[in-house]
Here is the input.
Amino acid sequence: MMDLKFENRDVKLSKSIKKNRELFKDLLGIGVSFDVDYRTINVLDTDVDVYFVTGLNDKSHVNMVLKELLELNEVEHFNRSKRKVHEIVENRIVNYQVEEMDVAYDAVTNILSGLIVIVVDGCTKAFAVDVRSYPDRSPSEPDTEKVVRGSRDGYTENIIINTGLTRRRVRDDNLRYELIRIGERSRTDVVIAYIKDVADPGLVQTVRGNIKDINVDGLAMSEKSLEEFIVEQKFNPFPLVRYTERPDVASAHLFEGHVLIMVDTSPSVIITPTTYFHHVQHAEEFRQSPTVGTFVRWIRFLGIMFSIFLLPMWLLFVMQPELLPKELAFIGPNEEGNIPIFIQIILADIGVEFMRVAAIHTPTAVSTAMGLIAAVLIGEIAIQVGLFGPEIILYVALSAMGTYSTPSYELSVANKITRILLVIATAFFGVKGLVIGFTVYILLLVRTISLNTPYFWPVIPFNARALYHILFRLAVPLHKTRPSIVHPQDDKRR
Amino acid sequence: MAEKERQEESQTSVFLKSLFCGAVGGFIWGSVSSIAYFFSFSNVSHASFTLRSFFSGSWTEGLSGELISLVIVTILGIIPALVYYLFFKKFNGITPGILYGIGLWVVIFIVFNPMFYYVPPFNEMDYDTIVTTVCQFILYGVFVGYTISYEHHERRIVPKNSQKEA
Here is the structure.
């Protein structure tokens, strides 16, 4: 009869409650699905239907709403002729979030979101009452962004908690949360957050436009699926947006003029626009004194450079020891081993990669055993058997540690791919391979543009002040202006 | 009136920024050139041009020579930036920068090669040296060119039909 889920979104509710009942039964599959149902109560001799989905709302709250409605029947002095029943009902709903609607599709969306929808006989309007209570965890420190001191709350899977956590840090009346529903079937809530008089309106518009253009069944992998719609990744392995699970990091970026995207069901918040150098900073640096923060950051930079260039450089010096100045002539393996060095490097690197991949889904109980096996096998036996030279293990381990010291997990994996490509280029073309590989690496980064933002800013295009801010972690009072990359409407921080 | 003044002001600031970025570019890629020379990727470094071709003495070799020459290169780096600012600032993207870098290399390594006594003539240079120095010039050209055109277009990426590629 009414199997018009997507086509007929404008079907209005009818005056007759029976027709509405049929409509909802059909749209929601009441009687087929066990968790969607309705309850009919009688208020002032009028039928009132309450639609709900169990599991998404707070039982005691729903019961209270029903009880209040039923108590209407016991009020004696009620003057029925003056007001219509639905007005009385609306006034009696004890909840501060009540919404009226007359389109069946809206009501269905609300029911499926966990609200209860109240339909009164003889009225073409329905009331959606927000009694949601989602299965949920409380904010806890995110695994990937730990700090020694400071706040330990992190975003959760619930977007309402997330917006709340952010607003607790940004009490600005100009903070805007724009809600957009994405996905024909998932109907996921997506929030664009920005400070109205700081963020670049052009950027907000681009983000909003890109999100609204999304036409998809569902965002099952929430924020990651969304990211792939709003930036063009193609074959670029580098992360084009930054994620954070920390409300303090997110609000720091709001103050700078960034635009955040939050997706319901995910604790990761997208920060846009993003450059390469957003991925090499970490909250911990801002929790230490500026000098210590700078020190930590430089060590981190060194680690990141090691993770990319150490292995190809070393391979080059093994292949062409004559390149080494005499001060460094000791570098290079004493014994070559039985396999070409370049194969050894690739094999050992893949071995480390095995461990990383395995560690992600190995249960904790088994992972100790795994670590032991990996360490003994790769570290000891492989050398004794003659598969690897001891120096290989040293350099592969060093560059693996460099990979782990990259704050952004996505960037570290992208750098790993770069490293392997550079090793291969060096193995085949020597100095030329390494130099051209390095140049192409830089040029590709420079060429990348994420949401109209040059990815390798502030190095190329060069911006002295911003580069200074990246090389040195400055004390917060010295942050006098917002970074120009976000095109803030208001340059000055006050 | 005020609009015009502001525009002029922003133009002078773009001009100064261009010169500054030329100097920084000279410094950064000069340092890279020194490192490449240290590891014998290339038989020449900037010091071969600025010092060793004109002076002799042990101070032109090694670290001292590289450091002194780095100062000179930092200052000299302004000139290509000025040229780029005057003639090419309207271009977008990185391709003009790459071409500009290659052009600079041709001018310095081939056209003016006879001026530099210490630099081997083009046909006697080995491939490693050529590749390494060309790459340095390309990166310098992109650094200067992309920065100047980005500043010139008021720090906005000019939308192209193809937005990005990897």
User: Anything to note?
Assistant: The interface with chain A takes residues 20-21, 24-25, 36, 38-41, 93-94, 98, 127-128, 131-132, 135, 138-139, 142-143, 146-147, 150-151, 155-157, 159, 163-166 of chain B (CB under 8 Å). Residues 6-155 of chain B form one domain. DSSP finds six helices and no strands in chain B. Confidence is low (pLDDT under 50) at residues 161-166 of chain B.
